């Protein structure tokens, strides 16, 4: 019953936050659409901000699954890493993700680097970069965790730039091209073509 109540509130809030935005979404509207009371919302989430955090956690989990699925199809470890990063950035083109994750989320909850999910993302990137260094693909003079934090910050800023652009499609192309160039700077200079990297 508790899980069902939480799920109903998250679903209703996600719909409202994704269509009219956090500021315009009324707690009464989404508690009514979920067939619940304000008391249920306060009990499970504390307040509207707590409900936004729960919605963001749900969307973030879905985004991570999608990113991992795309990365798993890459032919090399390096391409997997690049695809993982750029897929995340390109999700800023999707209206629900754009509004909740990259506009309202930072405006209400502050710097995404301080969100609970950020450490898991940095940890995953650190593992990737460590493995790429061991493979001889990425330069060894760069600390993997530091690089992961810089890349994580850059990808977050890139996604927010797209989300807040007047022309998200055009901005996405520009941003992703610049981001790829940024990542290329980590590569060891190789004699063979890039597609020979593991």
Automatic annotation (TrEMBL):
Q: Which domain of life is it from?
A: Bacteria
**Which of UniProt's keywords are assigned here?**
DNA-binding
Q: Please list the residue ranges the record marks as binding DNA.
A: 26-45
Q: Which SUPFAM superfamilies match?
A: Homeodomain-like
| Residue ranges that the Swiss-Prot or TrEMBL entry lists as coiled coil | none
InterPro entries found in the cross-reference section: Homeodomain-like_sf, HTH-type_TetR-like_transc_reg, HTH_TetR, Rv0078-like_C
Q: Where is the HTH tetR-type domain?
A: 3-63
GO molecular function (one): transcription cis-regulatory region binding
Cited PANTHER family: HTH-TYPE TRANSCRIPTIONAL REGULATOR RUTR, HTH-TYPE TRANSCRIPTIONAL REGULATOR UIDR
User: What's the protein name?
Assistant: Transcriptional regulator
The species is Mesorhizobium amorphae CCNWGS0123
């Amino acid at each position: 019953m508790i899980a069902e109540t939480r799920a109903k509130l998250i679903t209703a809030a996600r719909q409202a936050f994704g269509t009219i935005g956090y500021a315009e979404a009324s707690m009464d509207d989404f508690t009514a659409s979920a067939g619940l009371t304000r008391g249920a919302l306060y009990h499970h989430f504390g307040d509207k901000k707590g409900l936004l955090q729960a919605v963001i956690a749900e969307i973030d989990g879905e985004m991570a699954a999608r990113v991992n699925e795309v990365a798993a199809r890459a032919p090399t470890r390096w391409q997997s890493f690049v695809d993982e990063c750029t897929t995340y950035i390109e999700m800023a083109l999707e209206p629900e993700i754009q509004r909740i994750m990259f506009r309202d989320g930072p405006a209400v909850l502050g710097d995404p680097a301080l969100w609970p999910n950020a450490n898991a993302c940095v940890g995953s990137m650190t593992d990737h970069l460590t493995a790429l260094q061991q493979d001889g693909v990425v330069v060894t003079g760069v600390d993997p965790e530091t690089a992961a934090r810089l890349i994580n910050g850059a990808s977050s800023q890139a996604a927010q730039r797209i989300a807040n652009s007047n022309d998200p499609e055009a901005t996405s192309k520009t941003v992703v091209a610049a981001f790829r160039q940024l990542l290329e700077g980590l590569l060891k200079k190789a004699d063979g073509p890039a597609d020979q990297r593991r």
